[in-house]
Every structure is written in structure tokens, then in C-alpha cells.
Design a protein that fits this description.
The structure holds two protein chains of two kinds. Chain A is an alpha/beta fold. Chain A is built from twelve helices and nine strands. In chain A, helix 5 crosses helix 6 and helix 5 crosses helix 12. Chain A is globular, with a radius of gyration of 20 Å. In chain B, helix 3 links the parallel strand 3 and strand 4. Classes of the chains: A alpha/beta, B alpha/beta.
């Protein structure tokens, strides 16, 4: 595997391989010295055309804990300001001799394009409304640590589905692992067509909550209000916010996730965000381990398999 | 070696560990994934029988410290479990077969990320030679001359020699 661009390219077996490898990196991250030399000499560059401190830091922490070197290409202070094309930027960085690009861009498909321009690995760190595979993997990993398998579990994804790459990748990942997914959102925040999506849809959060094992909240991007897609934040919270009253409708043991950053008091009540069944900070911690697993699988394996001379015994 | 030989070798190595360390104070046992784990447990059982001291047994997977990452497919097997602090302790590393010494080199590097043991000792069931690094075992079940392309398989019923699959 050279690149990680979408969850669908992994399939159930690929997802499971990454999640099982993640267990090892969770152990590494618990040590006094949370670092292994597995990717010594490799260079990982984060190429973020869209601001995202947390995802970028998570990837860079992951790379450093594998012993790789990291470079940050910050669009705000770079040649992009002078009008350089993405392709020229990639070729320039490629000429430094890097092994992996972690790409975030507001347009869907940019990481895919870059993967075609370079021999280095490309990891999609989020592109447009399309995909955010490592977020889905860390969500699935976090849920698995609590629920065991996701097979037969029922997961509600609540919020702005239409503009959410997290929702798209989560749906692919959760359903590949055998879960049932129900989307809960106002009609204006759903895509125009859900044909081919392996999901159920509801506009009634109160009715869905008692039936789920997981309530996966999405962030409401405040600019959606100015787009006229929701009348007001208060009205959104009234119908779709996970308030204290609604959280009480969840079954005992049901989990609450949120990809961050949270709008406390909008999609999630402050008390609910801090409740014991909200696994939001675990998601962040697991994100580093999942990204270590992804980088190790992409960069730590031979590009061409040599004739297999069995083990060192 | 058959099942009885293995059992006797474990017993002897256990006695040697106790003799060398004047008892078991400060001694910890760590089995290397995967071949050394069962053997480490067997040695710890034997130590408990002799001295009446039950030692905790750790397991260590050295995959992320190997020097052939990127050359061979390298993936860890089981999650490392170090249930104790190794600072200032005597760590007995246990593996089934000692061959090139590269696994042990990786294990020494890995241990360094958990702490600074007072000493590290090495116990192996089979030393088959062909070292590529300056590493030697402290406790050996059996020295077994082999060809480089042979495979040595240690299990609780004995030791098998086979041809390496090319």
C-alpha cells in the first residue's frame, strides 16, 4: 500500500489490520520514553492548505514517535501566497527527498491528485467534503476498545452530514466493520441524495437515541448559519443538540464521540461533553496511535517484497 | 532434544540463574515474542518451585526496533507487556533460539526505552551459532551446530530441524 486516501480502499481486512497494529502503538505511547526507531531516516511532511492545528500536530507527533523527521509546509507563510501551483509545490518538496506527504485541502480530490505526482506516500488528512480516513480509523479504534467488535452495533451520526468528510469516512468505516448507521440531521444538512449510502436517515434524535450504542456528534460549523441552512444555533440545539435531557435517553453504556473542536452548548451540552460515557479525549489520544500505525504500514514495509526468507530463527 | 531434554534444560537453566544471581532478589524475567514467551513462563515456574519466589514475567515484542524494517515485512505479533519497572533490576531476557543476534540487539535497544537495568542476562533454549553481532548467551539449553539455511523449531515437545523455505 503506497497511499491512504479513503477508507473504502482499505476494506474490512485493511481496517482491521490498522486497528490491530494500533494496539502496539498505544502501548508505546504509555511508556516513559514513548518513541521507537521504526521509521528512522524517513521524512514526513505535512502539507496543510487548510488550517488544522490538532490534526497536523497529531500526525507530526505520530511521525516523531516513530523516529521519523517532520517538516511542516505552512501555506500562510509560503510560496503559495506568491501563486505557486500545488503541483509545483509538491515537486519542490519532493526534490528534498521526502517519504510521505500528509495532505489537507479544502477541495475534494487534492490528495488523490498529489498521489499521482509523487512516488512518496500520501496520507489524506482531510479533503473537502470527501474523506478523512484517519479520523474514521481513530473513531473506530476508540469504539472497539469499549464495545469489542462493531458488528451488529447501531451508531447514530448526528449533525452537519452534508459538509462533513468525517461523516463520509465514518460511514464507510463503521459499516465495513459490520455496524448499522443512522444519520440524524435537519434536511438542509443532508446531501441532496443519499442513494447508495448504506445508512438509515432520521430527523428525530429523541426517537433514535434509545436505540443506539454510539452517538457520534459532528461539529456545527458556525458559518452554516450565514448560509441559511439552519435558522439559528438555538433552534439547532433545540432539535439536534445532545442536551442533558437527551443524553439521559441513551442506553446505559452507550458512548458519545465528537471529532472536535466542540461547540459546547450547541451540538453538545457542557455537562454531556464531560460525562463519563463521552470518550472525546480518548479519541484524541488514540489518534496519535492510529496515525503511527498508518505511517508504519505505509513507510515501514518493503516497497517490493523480496523473496521471503522466513524469520531469523 | 525431546520433551524430557527440554524439561531438564529448563530446570538446569533455572538453577544457573539462581546461582549466578545469589537468589532471585531484583531478578525479572522477560520473554521475547513469540518464541521466548512460553519458555520464559516455564523458567519462571521452575524458579518458583526451587526458590518459592513467584517472579512476574514480562513479554517484549521488538518489531519496531529491528534493523530490517523496510527490507523484510516486519510486523509485531503480540502487544508488549512490561508489568514492572526495570530500573536497577537484573533482567533475564528469554528467547527460544539464538541465531544472528539481531533480535537480541533490538531487544537491548527496546529495554533502554523502558529504563536502565542493573544488568541484562540472556537465556536461550538453543544456540545455533552464525552470530552476526558480538552477543553471547548467559544460559543455554543446548548448543546446536546448524547450517545457515536450516530452520530450528523449538516447542514444548522438543526441537525440530527443518529446511528453510526459500
Amino acid at each position: 500500500m503506497k497511499d491512504l486516501l479513503t477508507i473504502s480502499a482499505l476494506g474490512e481486512a485493511g481496517i482491521t489490520e490498522i486497528l490491530e497494529l494500533t494496539d502496539h502503538f498505544v502501548e508505546v505511547n504509555r511508556r516513559a520514553i514513548p518513541k521507537v526507531p521504526a521509521l528512522r531516516g524517513k521524512t514526513v511532511v505535512s502539507l496543510f492548505y487548510e488550517d488544522s492545528t490538532r490534526t497536523r500536530l497529531s500526525f507530526e507527533t505520530a511521525a516523531k514517535r516513530l523516529g521519523a523527521d517532520t517538516m511542516t509546509f505552512s501555506v500562510a507563510t509560503s510560496s503559495v501566497k506568491k501563486g505557486e501551483s500545488i503541483r509545483d509545490t509538491v515537486q519542490t518538496i519532493d526534490a528534498f527527498g521526502v517519504d510521505c506527504f500528509v495532505v489537507r485541502h479544502k477541495s475534494s480530490g487534492v490528495p488523490h491528485q498529489i498521489a499521482g505526482w509523487t512516488d512518496a506516500s500520501v496520507v489524506n488528512g482531510g479533503d473537502g467534503w470527501h474523506a478523512h480516513p484517519t479520523q474514521a480509523l481513530l473513531d473506530a479504534y476508540t469504539l472497539r476498545t469499549h464495545l469489542g467488535s462493531l458488528r451488529g452495533r447501531h451508531i447514530a451520526i448526528v449533525g452537519d452530514i452534508k459538509h462533513s468528510r468525517v461523516a463520509r469516512s465514518d460511514i464507510e468505516c463503521f459499516t465495513a466493520l459490520g455496524a448499522t448507521v443512522t444519520l440524524v440531521a435537519p434536511p438542509t444538512l443532508l446531501p441532496p441524495s443519499l442513494e447508495g449510502w448504506p445508512v438509515q436517515v432520521s430527523h428525530d434524535l429523541d426517537a433514535v437515541l434509545p436505540t443506539v450504542d454510539v452517538c457520534a456528534l459532528l461539529r456545527i460549523q458556525l458559518e452554516r448559519m450565514t448560509d441559511g441552512l439552519i435558522p439559528s444555533l438555538r433552534e439547532y440545539t433545540e432539535f439536534f443538540g445532545l442536551t442533558v435531557r437527551r443524553a439521559a435517553l441513551l442506553r446505559p453504556g452507550a458512548l458519545i464521540t465528537h471529532p472536535g473542536p466542540m461547540n459546547r452548548g450547541v451540538e453538545i451540552a457542557p455537562e454531556v461533553a464531560d460525562a463519563s460515557n463521552a470518550v472525546i479525549t480518548e479519541q484524541v489520544a488514540n489518534g496519535v496511535a492510529v496515525r503511527m500505525a498508518v505511517l508504519f504500514l505505509l513507510l515501514g514495509q518493503p516497497s517490493q517484497l523480496p523473496p521471503l526468507s522466513e524469520g531469523p530463527e | 532434544m525431546d520433551r524430557g531434554d527440554i524439561r531438564r534444560a529448563i530446570k538446569r537453566m533455572a538453577h544457573e540463574i539462581i546461582e549466578r544471581n545469589h537468589g532471585l532478589s531484583g531478578v525479572e524475567i522477560i520473554g521475547l515474542q513469540t518464541g521466548g514467551v512460553e519458555l520464559a513462563a516455564a523458567i519462571a515456574d521452575e524458579l518458583a518451585d526451587i526458590e518459592g519466589t513467584v517472579l512476574p514475567v514480562g513479554t517484549l515484542d521488538v518489531a519496531f526496533y529491528r534493523d530490517d524494517i523496510g527490507i523484510r515485512p516486519v510486523l509485531p505479533e503480540e502487544v508488549t507487556n512490561m508489568p514492572f519497572d526495570i530500573d536497577g533490576r537484573i533482567v533475564v531476557l528469554v528467547d527460544d533460539v539464538l541465531f544472528t543476534g539481531r533480535t537480541i540487539r533490538a531487544a537491548l535497544d527496546a529495554l533502554g526505552d523502558y529504563g536502565r537495568p542493573r544488568a541484562v542476562q540472556l537465556a536461550v533454549m538453543v544456540d545455533r551459532g552464525h552470530r552476526e553481532l558480538p552477543i553471547r548467551p548467559d544460559y543455554v539449553g543446548r548448543n546446536l551446530p546448524t547450517r545457515r539455511d536450516e530452520l530450528v523449531n523449538v516447542h514444548s515437545d522438543g526441537v525440530d530441524l527443518g529446511e528453510m523455505v526459500k
